[in-house]
Specification:
4-stranded antiparallel β-sheet, about 30% helix, two-stranded antiparallel sheet, 2 domains, alpha+beta, about 180 residues
């Protein structure tokens, strides 16, 4: 260190260093814990719950049925049966022709499925809901400790036990 082109003697430099450290000396000591209260935080970790629910039926292979083919087939079948039958058998042949014509006409008009072409299957939809899952988690401790007749408060992440280490700094009081 230079001042006015002169070197400061090493003894003076050491004296300056020691006087500065003497003004703010520090050490560690033990303080007694008076109270330690756990601090909890509520944490929500929601989860999703899903299930299948029956909402109706699907008709597999069905569509709106048409009855025009059955009516037309019954008329044509009845006329043919009436032409074929003779005497008292004419009534029976007309009835059988009408019934057969109605069935054939219905099958042709409804793509050959007849009455057994429709099957009903249950229809399911997925339903979901969000469920809150709230838990308490320990975040630390509010600690009250006593040192030299004075009480102090601090937040600590770990349980301090019966005592804590404290840093003590000593400095000169102003007059």
């Amino acid at each position: 260190m230079r001042t006015n082109n002169r070197l400061i003697p090493p003894a003076l430099m050491l004296a300056l260093i020691f006087s500065a450290s003497a003004q703010a000396a520090g050490f560690q000591d033990t303080a007694w814990v008076v109270a330690s209260t756990p601090v909890y935080e509520s944490v929500n970790q929601p989860r999703r719950e899903c299930w299948s629910e029956q909402v109706g039926h699907d008709s597999v292979g069905s569509r709106d049925r048409s009855y025009g083919g059955a009516v037309l087939g019954g008329l044509v079948g009845g006329l043919l049966g009436n032409q074929i039958g003779k005497g008292t058998g004419r009534h029976w042949s007309t009835a059988v022709g009408a019934a057969t014509g109605a069935i054939v006409g219905d099958n042709v008009d409804n793509d050959g499925r007849g009455y057994r072409g429709e099957t009903r299957q249950p229809r399911y939809e997925e339903r979901c809901r969000r469920l809150d899952n709230i838990s308490r988690q320990l975040t630390g401790y509010n600690v009250t400790y006593r040192y030299q007749g004075h009480e102090y408060n601090a937040f600590m992440t770990d349980d301090p036990g019966r005592s804590v280490r404290v840093n003590v700094n000593v400095s000169l009081a102003e007059r």
